[in-house]
Amino acid sequence: MRMSMGLQARQLQTQKLAPRMIQSMEILQLPTMALQERVEQEMNENPLLEQQENDPLAPDEMDDDYPPSKDARSENEKELVVDNDHSNQEDFERLQNMVSELPNTFDESFKRSANRMSEDADRRHDLMANAVSRPESLNDFLLHQLAELDIDDDVEQVAERIISTLDARDGGYLRSPLADLLPAGHTPEDLAVAEKSLAIVQSLEPTGIAARDLSECLLMQIKSTFPHFEEMRTLIKDHLADLAENRLPQIAKKTNYSIDLIQTVRDELHGLNPKPGAAFMETYVPNVTPDIILEQDDSGEYVVRLDDDRVPTLFISEYYRRRLQDPTSTAEEREFIKNKINSAQWLIDSIEQRRSTLTKVAQAIVAHQKRFLDEGPEAIEPLKMQQIADKVGVHVTTVSRAVDDKWIQTPRGILPLKRFFVGGTQTEDGEDVAWDTIRLKLQELIDKEDKSDPHSDEKLVDELKKAGMTVARRTVTKYRKKMGIPSSRQRRDWSLVKK
Asked: What is the architecture, at CATH level 2, of domain 424-496?
């Protein structure tokens, strides 16, 4: 085999997205709040961009010199052709000196009234006053209790180390062996101190904290004053797995307890807290702002309206337009303005394209899911993004970007646009049925079943088939688990079983 080194020329045909197309896709994917931030960033970086607020002043407060909207400007002003035959360096220093040349009326056109400024100040004050303070963490809560105790320094140090390992997301369990929290080469005396420190931490509130497993956590919470203290302790220590699987006859056989007594004790155990530290877990609730408003007109038809009032209407500064055409401007200045005009026009066009695409996609989705909006979740129909792409006349990836992280305000609440896309199957009659409809029917069958003899997954398949829904058993099992529904054995109520 001969090997050699050399240069070869080959022709390759590749596809690359133009920068304008990349920017347009990025803008399309942004939700309203993110788009607002993007516009503010672009305005900070591009002095040629000016904004007209979408909530204009009342007519009697309107300034005669207020900048015209994009639609109000002439076609000649909309289309601005710049010279692309130069490649001069940008002269930032000269542009900074231009600020002094701006006419006085330029700033006055955007000046708000005293009432408007006062309203903005009040809104900012309300936001600060209503801001939610950060809740106390589990570790801080335990450390505050520990600081009030009169204990030896070595015990307190190990106790603080134990507290530092507890995680509210894990329920406050101690997952690390005590030996791992001690220095290498620790002595039996050190381990005894660690055991004492753990006992102190476990004596703190909430009860059950720093347990090493579920059994220890529950045992720490039961008290001798409980009506069935001994039975509870027996079930916790020796039969937790059987309780979880609802194997009450096996427990009765091993303990000689009656089924009724075991069920009573199990109900009392349900009053204990298996994750005592979870109460300190910070729950993130996203601030959802609808991008689209769905309203009904006088004839009852659904009409989509884009809620982008927070996104300012942009236009290119008339001052810099004149500077570009001013014969006294230097070549460097014109080159800088030309580049910034191109960048500004790309952004404006991308925002307009986003408005158009998002409106068309949302309207097509609403038209397909009208029964869902009228009748509720049980009437939702199968819908794929490709169907909307074909209807609107765009690529399916465009639909995916359009609905990503977008929310729509409907008569049934604020919903993510992706909520309207669901898979499905066909009934024996060839009718399409959404998986959401199947899940609702599955829940209905389980709610109405005989709890002394609950439906197995195979039985649920048969019942769904009777309702005209042909579904595989593995699919029923998958959706049952997703819905948090236990197995038939776990759902059985043994008190109803004939003895």
From this structure: Orthogonal Bundle (1.10)
- What pLDDT is recorded for position 13? 55
CA distances from 39 to 29, 30, 45, 235, 291 (A): 14, 11, 10, 62, 16
Residue 113 DSSP class: P
Read off the pTM: 0.59
Distance CA 348, CA 342 (A): 10
Q: Which of 220, 227, 266 is nearest to 247 (CA)?
A: 266
pLDDT tens string 379-390: 888 889 999 999
Closest CA to 425 of 416, 434, 417: 434
**Phi first, then psi: what are they for 407, rounded to 5°?**
-125, 150
What tens digit of pLDDT does each residue of 461-475 get?
Answer: 888 888 878 888 888
pLDDT mean over 254-268: 92
Distances (CA, A) of 62 to 103, 300, 308: 20, 36, 22
- Residues carrying CATH 1.10.10.60, the chain: 424-496
Q: Report which residue type is found at 445.
A: L
Peptide bond into 206 cis (omega under 30): yes
Confidence of residue 131 (pLDDT cuts 50, 70, 90): very low
